[in-house]
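Quick start: what a row looks like.
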Amino acid sequence: MMKTNKFFAVLMLAVPAFLMQSCLKDQEDTFDQPSSIRMQTFLDNAQQTLVNASNGWILEYFPHKNQVYGGYVYTLRFTADSVYTNCELDPGYNYGSLYRMTNDDGPVLTFDTYNPALHYFSTPSSEMYESFGGDFELVIDSVGADVIKLHGKRSLTTMYMYKMTEDANSYLDKVFANIDGLLFASAKGNVGNLTAEGNVDLDNRQITLTSGEMEGSSAFVFTDKGIRLYKPIELGDVIVTEIGLDTSDFKLVGTAKTGEAIDLQLVKPDAWKSFQELVGTYAFNSETPRDVEVVANPDGASYTLTGFSQDGPIQATYNKGAGSMNIAAQFCGQYAGYDLYLCPCNGSTYSTSGVFKGVNSEKDGVFSITFTNPDYPTFWIFAFKGGSNAGYLEKLSSPMILTKK
């Protein structure tokens, strides 16, 4: 009898567990099919929302998981199976390709046929073997009538699409006007009742706002009004998400998310020069003094310097915020079967990614650029073969100064 009662007690304990398992199994069977139907309905509605926008969509695209390159503007116009793309990096070109709406551990908008614009940040190259860390598969987080929230499947970076109320070229013209109009890297003024300063990295599209000991930074993307931040900057109780640009008065303006007025005057650096003003002939204070010819490249953002190195021309990039130029480590060509690289060096180590930043000065009508790097005082031309460093051909020591003739 005791054994029978014991067995009965165990059985009674097991029955609820069995019933629970049975119920769970029934639930799984019940919800498997509706779940797939709900997913397909979501994808169909999302696609219809994309297609129904007659002017298309603005995609504010942030490559890289840490947004180190800032954000870039795309305009997208969708049909049932194709997307037509404009990008601020390639103005004047419209690229068409196929796209799909698919369920891949969530609703995904995938641009899986090659598109030069949409795949630019995710395609590796010899210089960027890991690419820029971009995505061509975007997970759809939410869909509204005018705003769609997404994130990169690989980078997890949040992105937004905004329904356009004008044609793509008109919107991009306003974006370009703001890109051209944001000339200087620093600003001073007020955010609400706070005395504040702004520092803008125009090359990598990052902004830092400070007020006393309070500081916040974010990547940004250009818009038709100014810039939009990837993440809010908080200065005490003040929250900034967007900043307008007054190109006529060179100001950062607008209203914080919390209602405070933004009024920051952009500050022109001493001896700031436009891109074209840096073109010309310079005297170089190298060990063997010589002239350097600076020629503008067709891209409007870089220069070819002939004479800076005795081993061939090198490239420099325009630093718009400083109104100067920077020289980065780079491949310089070949000599006697060796690959030549210009590298910053401190005598014991060298860098294949370091940059010498140009600092302008102008006195008594004489303009000069001094190139500095706090970690590497010299530029060396190294010869490599088979991946090994075979020695150097030339050493350029600081201070490296170009004086315009």
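That is the whole record. Residues 1-31 have pLDDT under 50 and may be disordered. Residues 206 and 273 are 22 Å apart (CA to CA).
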